[in-house]
Design a protein that fits this description.
Elements lengths: L2 H16 L6 H8 L3 H7 L3 H26 L3 H14 L5 H10 L1 H28 L4
Length: 136
């Protein structure tokens, strides 16, 4: 795993567990055994690192949905798998969301954009279900 990816992963775990505001770049660096300077060579600031984490999680969810779209035959099965996925990828706890809303406007907008894209996907699944006759 590349250093940048390791930083994103470690920061994300800490952000979700403790809240974004409570975690310093020093702590992230310490956990990884690298200098804070190394983090700043890869990310502009904490919000940039946070945005990378949010986008990484969105990419993981998109890949999961793409995989289940290939495997499942009906919309009902896909919905059930997506519900399972939400549990697995549910990284948005209240502390995390509260910190994003209060202190990180770009990250908050990214989460809102992702939510809107999710609504579009749900609409597509519903339309497909109606076309298959499994949803009225």
């Amino acid at each position: 795993m590349e250093l940048k990816d390791r930083i994103i992963q470690q920061a994300g775990e800490l952000f979700v567990k403790h809240g974004i505001k409570r975690i310093s770049m020093d702590e992230i660096a310490s956990r990884l055994g690298i200098s804070k300077r190394t983090i700043y060579q890869n990310f502009k600031d904490k919000e940039d690192l946070l945005l990378h984490y949010i986008r990484h999680m969105e990419k993981m969810k998109a890949e999961y949905i793409k995989d289940i779209s290939k495997d499942e035959h009906t919309v009902v099965h896909m919905f059930l798998r997506i519900i399972e996925m939400r549990k697995e990828f549910d990284f948005l706890n209240l502390i995390f969301i509260d910190d994003v809303k209060k202190y990180y406007p770009k990250a908050n907008q990214e989460l809102l954009d992702q939510q809107n894209r999710g609504v579009v996907h749900i609409r597509q699944f519903l339309e497909e279900g109606m076309a298959q006759g499994v949803i009225r």
